[in-house]
Every structure is written in C-alpha cells, then in structure tokens.
Design a protein that fits this description.
The chain has 9 helices and 7 strands. The protein is α+β, with helices and mostly antiparallel strands. Helix 1 packs antiparallel against helix 3 (86-97).
C-alpha cells in the first residue's frame, strides 16, 4: 500500500478527486523508465544486452528522466514522450526507497529498479501500477497511509510475530546438523523486494557468524518476476547442487541459468557477485566470470517487516 499511495499522488484525478491509476504511467512513460534504467545500469556487467546483472551497483536516479519544463497531463499527451513529470519522478523515488517511521528509520527495504518493473502481463504485472488488479488485489486509490498506525498493528500482532520467519535468524540447530541452504530471488519480483531476502540473509549471517556464510548462498536473478518469468535466465536447478553439497560436501560453484527457450546461459553468482562478460560467445556461460562489485556493495539495514508495504 505504501508504494500505491506514492504512485497515486502522481495520478490525474477524477471528478471526485480520486486518482486515475491507469493514467499514472503511460506506455511511453514505462518505456522511458526502462530505457533510463538500462542507460544507467546495463553496461555495469561488461555488456549492453538489456539485462542488469550487476544488481548491487545499479543506483538508478529517476531525476535524470525529469522533463525540463511542464509535462502535459495525462502523461500520454502529445509531446510528453521521453521524459517524466516532477510528480512521477518523486513518486518513483519514494515508492522504491520504501517507507520510514517518524524518526527516519526504514521499516521496509528499498525495491530494486530492474527491467521487469514496467511489465504489464500476461501473469503478474510489474511493480509500476496499471490500474488493473495486481499482486495485492484490486488497484488501491488511497492517497495517504498512516505508517505509525500500521506499524503499531504489526507489532501488536502476537500471532504474526510467532509465525513470521522474517524475525527468525538463529539457525544454530540447523547449522549444527550440517544443514545447507540456497536462496534465490527474482530482481523484478513485484510481490516483495529481492532486497528483503538479502536483508534477511545478512541478518542471519550476523546472528550465526561464519557458519551461516559457509553453509548458504544467495542468488539474485535479474529480470525474473515472482519465482519465474520475465526477461530473464529463469531456468536453473539448485536442488541438485544442494543435494551434492549436503551429501558429498561439494559446495556449488557456478550453477547455470538459461533462457526458457534454451538460447543462452549464464552462471548464477552468489550475491553481491554477478556474471561479468569477459568476451567470446555471449550465449555461453564460459564467457562470464563471477565478479565482486567495486567498491564493495551496499548493505540493506535491519527493518521491521510491514505487510502490504
């Protein structure tokens, strides 16, 4: 809901003063946003291919897409293509940054900018609103949200605190029995942020120390939506490497991920490392090496998880 409220503040209004959600971003606006993200982040992995492999260093700046003058409303009016209004830019910055409490403390992690955020279907839509039902049901037309009240409700829900694994990071028993775990998350997942999983991984590493880092891997899958789909290398087997790790002591090195049509493959690299193109046939996994970003990457701080963000 937090993101919906931010986007709705940039929408044209109907006769009753409510946001017209389907007009927040026109098809041209969506293309402008994706093109802008690619312009700023695509080549960070050594190759311009419409994929943002170096997720950790993609610091997209929406303000660079802002029109120099006033933009017509609705946003698909003649002459509006190629840039965004100040209201649209502000909505993008706030929605993707995530909500904060009154003291400025983040209560949800940022959402990564990726190529699938403007996806309109079939299947789950991307993170940008379309006016159609999305992952949380019918499109919200709310223009405000009481974050403090929502946070109090979450903190007062004892059942959620007992069942929400977001707060469980002590894996001493699991690790003591030789357990191993592989995580993966689509960077374009519209349901919840891929940075949320990464935040949990970091907090679990802080709780359990080297034992956890030695027994787990976390993979970001650029372009992938919720569990699959999108413009992505979303065909991979992590169960086989996990079994091999547990039963034979062989840690996964570079699990291969391929296109759905089998046309190309890249290695999956433990985040924040990413597959950097080194030359040769770009459709073959051996043309990439897992490389750590320079300088060392962002850390998503601890947060209180808030449903419905």
């Amino acid at each position: 809901e937090w993101a919906a409220v931010q986007f709705n503040q940039a929408a044209p209004r109907d006769a009753e003063g409510l946001p017209i959600v389907q007009q927040i971003f026109s098809p041209a606006d969506r293309q402008t946003i994706v093109d802008g993200v690619l312009k700023q982040c695509d080549t960070l992995d050594g190759r311009a291919d419409g994929m943002i492999m170096n997720v950790a260093q993609c610091y997209f700046r929406p303000v660079e897409l802002q029109c120099s003058g006033d933009k017509p409303v609705p946003s698909d009016a003649e002459g509006a293509d190629g840039c965004l209004s100040g209201a649209q830019v502000g909505a993008l910055e706030r929605a993707f940054a995530g909500p904060k409490d009154a003291a400025g403390y983040p209560i949800y992690v940022p959402v990564p900018f990726d190529t699938g955020i403007a996806f309109t279907g079939p299947g789950l839509p991307g993170y940008l609103p379309t006016g159609a039902p999305g992952v949380f049901g019918p499109a919200s037309r709310a223009l405000a949200m009481d974050i403090a009240a929502r946070l109090r409700a979450v903190e007062a829900d004892a059942a959620q605190r007992l069942t929400d694994t977001n707060v469980w990071t002590d894996l001493d028993t699991f690790l003591g029995r030789g357990g191993k775990v592989l995580f993966y998350h689509g960077v374009s997942d519209p349901w919840f942020s891929a940075n949320d999983s990464w935040d949990w991984w970091q907090r679990a590493a802080a709780t359990n120390g080297a034992a956890f880092a030695d027994a787990s891997r976390y993979y970001m899958v650029p372009g992938m939506m919720h569990c699959g789909g999108g413009n992505a290398y979303d065909r991979f087997d992590l169960l086989g490497p996990l079994v091999d790790w547990v039963e034979n002591g062989k840690a996964p090195e570079r699990p291969l991920a391929s296109r759905a049509n089998g046309s190309a493959a890249v290695p999956l690299c433990p985040h924040p490392a990413y597959p950097h193109y080194t030359g040769g046939d770009a459709a073959k996994a051996e043309s990439y090496e897992c490389r750590a970003p320079e300088p060392e990457v962002i850390t998503i701080g601890p947060h209180v998880r808030m449903p419905g963000r």
